[in-house]
Amino acid sequence: MSNESQELDDIDRRILNTLQVDASHTNAELAELVHVSAPTCLRRVKQLMENGVIERQVAIVAPERVGARLTAIVEITLDVQAADRMDEFEHVVADEAAVLQCYRVSPGPDFVLVVQVADMPAYHALAHRLFTTHSNVRNVKAYFSTFRSKFETRITV
Questions:
Q1: What is the tens place of the pLDDT at every residue in 88-104?
Q2: Residue 60 φ then ψ, to 5°
Q3: Which domains does the chain have, with CATH numbers?
Q4: Range 27-31, long-range pairs (CB < 8 A, 24+ positions)
C-alpha cells in the first residue's frame, strides 16, 4: 500500500461519502444509494479497501456512555529528537489503549496526543505510565476538554 493519493472517480466518491455517513449498509443497499449494480459496488469497495483508501470500518462509540468521560489533548516534547527516539516514543504510546490518536507535529512540541480516559485519576495514572517514567520526555502540556462541540470522522472526497 502506498501513501500516494489514489485517483478516484465519481462512483468511488459516492461510495466513500455514503460509507462515511453509515458503513452499516448492506452491499445491495449501498449499491442502490450510489446508483450502481451490486457486483460493481462490491468490486469497488473491495478495491478501495485493497488500495488502503478505506483503512477499516468501525463503530463510533459515545465515550460518556462507556465511562470514558475525560478527553485530554496532550503536547509532548522530547529531550532527544533523533529518529530512533521518536520511533521509540511512538511505540510506547501505540500500545496504550487510552491514546486514541498520536501525531508528530512541527513546529512546537514533538507530538500531540488525543487521550480518552474515565476521569482525572485515570489520566494521572496514564501520565505516570507514559510520561514520567519515560526518560526522554522533557515536557508535557495537557488540555482537558470541557465540552465537545464537534466530532467528525468524515473526510470530504
A1: 999 999 999 999 999 99
A2: -95, 120
A3: 10-50 (1.10.10.10), 63-144 (3.30.70.920)
A4: none
